[in-house]
From TrEMBL:
Gene3D superfamilies: NAD(P)-binding Rossmann-like Domain. One of its GO terms (molecular function) is quinone binding. PANTHER family: 3-OXOACYL-[ACYL-CARRIER-PROTEIN] REDUCTASE, SHORT-CHAIN DEHYDROGENASES/REDUCTASES FAMILY MEMBER. It comes from Piloderma croceum (strain F 1598). InterPro entries: NAD(P)-bd_dom_sf, Sc_DH/Rdtase_CS, SDR_fam. The keyword rRNA processing does not apply. This is 3-oxoacyl-[acyl-carrier-protein] reductase. It holds the Pfam family adh_short_C2. Belongs to the short-chain dehydrogenases/reductases (SDR) family. The keyword Oxidoreductase applies. Keywords: NADP, Oxidoreductase.
Amino acid sequence: MADRLGQISGHITNTYGRGLLAGEVAIITGEPYSEGIGRSAAILFSKEGAKVVVTDIDAKKVDIVVGEIKKLGGDAIGVAGDVAADDFPKKIIDATVQKYGKINHIVNNAGFTFDKMLHTMPDEAYDIIMKVHVRAPFRLVRAAAPYFRVKGEARENRTVTMVSSTSGLHGNVGQANYAAAKAAVVGLTKTIAKEWGPFGVRANTVAYGMVHTRLTAAKEAGESIEIDGKKVALGIPQPSKAPEPDSLFATIPLGRGGTPDEAAAAMLFLSSPLSSYISGHTLEVTGGRGI
């Protein structure tokens, strides 16, 4: 036990100066947009020494982020594809292992909203959200099992980070599908923590509040995503009468929304040796909202 604790403490000390994730490999799914959490996480992980695998349904955006990382001197590859597709887990796992030989971190960040009031929500709106937010992460983590369930004491830092939301913790009007999916993610994460903890794997969830991305921008801006050939509008409908600026963040003690970089920092913390004794936890990143 003393040797094991020494390994952990040494890893924290030795990697800090070279990057918290030096020499490690991270798969980060979703949102490689200029305002997306996925992009911020990919760049931040790379700056901390990780080799990053960027993925999203939009191949052009993936290539842009990979280019940004390489321009900064980092190492990254892009694997475009639909996280909900049956062949996606094998595709990204194979590409990662072929390039880097291992996997240390999976950050299941891909997702979107498909808001409808409960009494008008069609089955397809519920099913696709569950498929992308719950089934897809489950299948990706399952496919990566051989690279995480590693026996022996000399194990590298390995983590699974899931993304939830305050909607999953407290529910939200117009988001029966999204709230159900994000609640399910918490249970999935805790199960991974219990099953894979004996192999030294940590699994945690980040539950975000208001973070400024295209998912929280005004719906009237016209942002959308194409799912199964259909366009799904993104964003939050704005009231007909503009609210007072202060009222937008009245329930947030810090008085503002978060940035993608701040959201990504929580992912980095949970993936790094700084959280080496944290597993099965749901970290609320909300600016204090909901306390």
